[in-house]
Amino acid sequence: MTSLLPLLTSGPHGSRSHLTCQFKCGFACDQPVPNTSANEEIGTLVVNALARRSLIKGSAMGAGALVLGGLVSPNVAAAATRSINPLNLGSAGFVPVAPNVRDNVSVPTGYTYDVVAKWGDPIIKGAPAFDVHNQTPEAAAQQFGYNCDYVGLVYRADDRAVMMVDHEYTDENLMFPTGAYDADTIKRIAIQNHGLSIIEVERQSNKGRWRMRDISAAKLNRRITGTSRFELVGPAAGDPRLRTSADPLGRRVLGTLNNCAGGTTPWGTFLSGEENFNQYFDKNGTIDAAYTTSFNRYGLTGSGSRGWSAVDPRFDLVAEPHEAFRFGWVIEIDPLDPESTPRKHTMLGRMKHEGANITIASSGHAVAYMGDDERGDYIYKFVSADLFDPRETQSARRRNMELLTKGTLYVAKFTGDGSEDGVYDGSGIWIPLTTDTESFVPGYSVADVLINTRLAADLVGPTKMDRPEDIEGNPINGKIYCALTNNSNRGNSAMPVNEPNPISSSMTRPQLGAALVTQSGNRNGYILEMTEDGDDHTGTTFTWDLFLVCGDPAAPETYFAGYPKELVSPISCPDNVAFDAAGNLWISTDGAVLGGNDGLYRVPVEGPERGKVECFLTVPFAAECCGPLISQDQKSVFAAMQHPGETTGATFENQTSTWPHTDAFPRPGVIVAYKS
Length: 676
Description:
Layout: H1 18-25, H2 49-57, H3 74-80, E1 111-118, H4 137-140, E2 148-157, E3 160-167, H5 172-175, H6 183-193, E4 195-203, E5 210-212, E6 222-224, E7 229-233, E8 252-254, E9 259-264, E10 270-274, H7 292-297, E11 330-333, E12 343-345, E13 357-360, E14 365-371, E15 379-387, H8 394-400, E16 407-416, E17 425-435, H9 446-451, H10 453-458, E18 468-473, E19 480-484, E20 507-510, E21 516-519, E22 526-532, E23 541-549, E24 559-560, E25 574-579, E26 585-589, E27 599-603, E28 614-618, E29 624-630, E30 636-642, E31 669-675
Parallel strand pairs: 7-12
Antiparallel strand pairs: 1-31, 2-3, 3-4, 4-5, 4-6, 7-8, 9-10, 10-11, 11-12, 13-14, 14-15, 15-16, 16-17, 17-23, 18-19, 19-22, 20-21, 22-23, 23-24, 25-26, 26-27, 27-28, 29-30, 30-31
């Protein structure tokens, strides 16, 4: 293949707009990398890994050519003409969706989709109907929140379930008509549009279809916002650093922010990760020097542009410096008890959590895998001290809900095997940081490790990664899969390449209209596959390989687990992962730089089709694909459409998307796709 897909990357943000970078993460890529430790980079384990693969495997990818033609790859189209094996979605498989820039959700022929819930939909009995010109904080606290991320289901019966959806952040440029609201009102409404929505859903006559249950009968519906009450639990709860003037005991927090990915526990609760919480804090004066080291490691510079301290002084790092320590946790919510108080788990450490997913080890321990979503930060796991109780009783469930309060927190160190095998792989160890009673980091107490987890991890020599995001165990083959989304700095002097992070050279690619664009670093991301040694997830050693090196199949650096590259869909910037009942991996993307919209992809991880990436759906223009979730009967695919139309220069009066096309402005929401 000689032709390549067009890159949409002119700076550190790739295809992300400045609006997305501002509101989603506070321009994290423009800031200095918080991890200044000398710990080894994933990209420096074997400097010549890419060259070694090129020498051994070559870059030939078949006779077909990947050319531009309405952003459709002929090799993908050719693959679409073949009979595709069933994918456990009813009785038939699907024909992959070709790259496109449509302002709609594109699904395979023979499938359709419905919107389950969208921004502003009333979800609490008595909530007002959504009116973009008459928004209030009180109304927002009763309506479906803004940008959606994680989607989880707890089944109550075959045809009924409770759904949780994260609301990661707000984009005030797109949400509010210019001049219609004063600045403080906008801030208060935005705070209520953060958090999570809990909604009851029910199956329709077509068993793949789901919809929100009528709110008059949906007694479990609930909104968690930026001001909802939370309880801090675990060893660090009550620590002086968690105490504020409003909470002198350090055990009660108002709200959750920047909720990204999550997980549904085996005991029927939801987990959610607080990610880029630093961007919500500003400063009115000079920050106390006692906090400098910790704040710098978490990007807490006081430069937050949202200005929330004007309506709530707890977001001022000078007035309430301890408030920032009360965010960056994994939260747990009981969806079956609408009166329960959500909890923040200090035992799982404080970082920019993408999420947390639970695997029950053969020993019975609950194991949580977690990523700290920042360039140069680490992968973690937690192993519970107590055992999971599989009985379906209330008492067993109550005991299981305490599993995340006691155990051992680890951080990962990777080593490349350095062999001339043409594969990015190696071994690794889990380095213990702390239990609930004993710290393993010299000079750090248990609370020190849990509150300043990044600083504690820096001291024990883990491996810096390329934005470790969603990490989840495969229920069929027992392996762990992690999305390493990208790292535009990979390959420079501060972040050299290594075997787990092998993209090293700048690459000049054709841009739309025949212009040339230079792509530096790891722009397209990887999928990391980890195999815990032995039959248990509680050990301290593992092996690993890069299952996917994402990007344009015509590019020599890409790799699809050895599958023929001319037969796969292009994929860029993996973000969230999920699995179906057959163990196939599903990947949603965020910030794809290959010239088309983001999407959701399915790829087998075992057998002759291992590595065969196929696009199941693409999202509306300028949106990010989140979720995803495959229903337990394999008939429904849920996904969240985050920030449609979020392009540089877009405003409420100048929208670049109107999805889901019910209004003249975009409304982020959750969809379900199913066979027609």
